[in-house]
Amino acid sequence: DNAIKSSASLLSQMADVLEESDRVAAYTPVVGEICCARFSEDQGWYRAVVNSVSPDRRSVDVTFVDFGNSEANVGVDETRPLPEQFASQPLQAVHCALHGVAPASHGARWSEDSIEFWQSVTPMTVKLNARRLGSHGDKVLLELIDSSSGRDV
């Protein structure tokens, strides 16, 4: 798929540019800014939005905008300004929610027990297809379909 190849190419080019550049002096990202941050699991550079800055301004919490995962306590020395040539590319992660499914308390976050239950009933070996049913605010509302049975999960 061309979109996947384009996204992989973007990440590869960005990593090359950032690895060749020196640390930017006195750079401290600000909340809401899109920057580059190093992901701790693979040490790769990815585009990220800054969710919060620690009081001592030595670390930030970020969400990786092309994947949707978050990481806390990323050292500011592991962040860089986003090079201009990568700022115009559309963000790849989309904020989604399951249609008709919400935590018991309105506006609450899912409990760890709820997350563990969901993970136990949807093993990684099950292939799911997502069907867009609409949107609510900034969220795309989805229905998940078990690809082997065609049933809504």
Question: How is this structure best described in words?
Answer:
With 153 residues, this protein is α+β, with helices and mostly antiparallel strands. Helices cover 19% and strands 32% of the residues. It has a 5-stranded antiparallel sheet. Strand 2 (45-53) and strand 3 form a beta hairpin. The mean pLDDT is 82.
Features:
153 residues, 3-stranded mixed sheet, 2 helices, 8 strands
Briefly, what is this?
The protein is an alpha+beta fold and 153 residues long.
**Strand proportion:** 25-35%
Q: Strand sequence of the main sheet, in spatial order?
A: 4-3-2-1-5
Count of β-strands: 8
Computed over alpha carbons, the radius of gyration is: 18 Å
The helix/strand class is alpha+beta
Main sheet specs: 5 strands, antiparallel
- Overall geometry: globular
Helix count equals: 2
Mean pLDDT, as a whole number? 82
User: Termini, distance in Å?
Assistant: 27 Å
Q: N-to-C SSE series?
A: HEEEEEEHEE
Relative helix content? 10-25%
Low-pLDDT segments, ≥5 res:
none
